[in-house]
Design brief:
Elements: H1 2-14, H2 23-41, H3 47-62
Length: about 70
């Protein structure tokens, strides 16, 4: 479930505009990332891997998909 939420959040971040019209999408992406981290915390063995992947996804999305 965490992976799905992260992919959806990254997709939203990639389509954000520079003006206020993307504010709602930004809030939704933030909520998805928060819930994904909560879901990832339940999988103690993979938590570090999932959070590292989340950081890479978010960073890539903020650069227009470039890692």
């Amino acid at each position: 479930m965490a992976e799905l939420m992260l992919r959806r959040a990254a997709a939203l971040l990639e389509t954000l505009c520079d003006d206020r019209s993307g504010a709602f999408d930004l809030l939704v992406a933030d909520a998805l990332i928060t819930y994904a981290m909560e879901a990832a915390a339940d999988d103690h063995d993979r938590f570090d891997e999932l959070t590292a992947r989340a950081a890479a996804m978010i960073a890539g999305a903020s650069r227009g998909g470039q890692p």
